[in-house]
Amino acid sequence: MKVISPFWANGVTQAVDDEEFSDLLGDIYDAAMDQSLWVPVLEKCASFVGGCAAALFFKTAAGSGGDTYFYTGITPHFRKLYFDQYVTLDPSTTAHFRADLETPVAIGDCIPYDEFLETRFYREWAQPQGLVDFISTVLDKSETNVTMFGVFRHERDGVANNETRWRMGLIAPHIRRAVVIGKLIDVKHTEVTSFDILDGLSAGIFLVSADGFIVHANLAGNTMLGEGDLMGSVGGRITVEDPQVAQAMREAFAAADTADIALGVKAITLPLRSKNGERYVGHLLPLNSGKRCAGIGHRATAALFVRKAALGSAFAADVIAKTFNLTPTELRVLLAIVEVGGVPEVAAALRIAVTTVKSHLGRLFDKTGVTRQADLVKLVAGYSTPLA
Question: According to the model, what pLDDT value does residue 272 have?
Answer without folding.
Answer: 77
